[in-house]
Amino acid sequence: MKKTIIGILAALFTVSLLTVTAFADNEKGVVTADVLNVRSQPQIADNVVGSLYNGQTVDILAADGNWYKIDYNSIPAYVHSDYILLRTSYLTSRDGNGAEKRGTLGEEVVEFAKNYLGTPYVYGGASPSGFDCSGFVYYVYKNFGVTLNRVAADQSKNGYVVERSDLMPGDIVLFSRTLDGYISHVGIYVGDNQFIHSPQTGKSVEIVSMSSGYYNYGYVGARRIFK
Fold first, then answer.
1. What gap in Å lies between CA 149 and CA 214, rounded to an integer?
2. Residues of the signal sequence (predicted)?
């Protein structure tokens, strides 16, 4: 009887090992839920040890069934895989010769945004039929599982503060036309001191220099969504 029990336990242990898939050291995921519970074990019933929020990036150690084992403040913990988007699922693309290449998540945001160059400005628009400035940024990030605030002034509260000297592709850049600094325009930094945006009525989504006119003196800050 004792040997039978040991045999059953050994079999169960072997099966459980088969469900765990190790990840590379640099595997990361992005939280797509508004608030995601972090648990001590891969079970709903187990204690919640913390929370993650929409757009946060996590280091993934392994996959265990429908759960990801993550590094949570240097402690192994678990989150449900339904609410994590693996960065590698959209970080791989092809260059002009068909060779595989990898970019940062911010660069992928920019490449996606470029698909809508020439889309007309539509006040209140947040779809490929027409965008206003914040609607464009909202729509692009929504594709990456992140729900930003809808208007420019509120998007200035999303993500993390970035200095102008530290801008990276994918960062949200913010502009004001008034002395009080009220955010009235927003776009996505492309790199090389340029950004992509939906400017105003009568124009279309375009890439422009941040050194030109209003975009230079009206610049008030930037936010990074993926950290």
1. 24
2. 1-24
pLDDT digits (tens, 9 = 90+) for 174-202: 999 888 889 999 999 999 999 999 999 99
**Residue tagged active-site, from 197, 198, 215, 224:** 197
Domain span holding position 13: 2-88
Write down the catalytic residue from 28, 69, 185, 223.
Answer: 185
Distance between CA atoms of residues 36 and 56, nearest Å: 10
The catalytic position among 61, 109, 133, 190 is 133
pLDDT in tens, 211-223: 988 899 999 999 9
Average pLDDT over residues 71-99: 74
Sign of CA dihedral 156, 161, 167, 171: negative
User: Is the torsion defined by CA of 196, 152, 147, 31 positive or negative?
Assistant: positive
Q: Is 133 a catalytic residue?
A: yes
Domain containing residue 188: CATH number: 3.90.1720.10
User: Does the active-site annotation cover 187?
Assistant: no
197 carries an active-site annotation: yes
Instruction: Let me know whether 20 and 64 are in one domain.
Output: yes
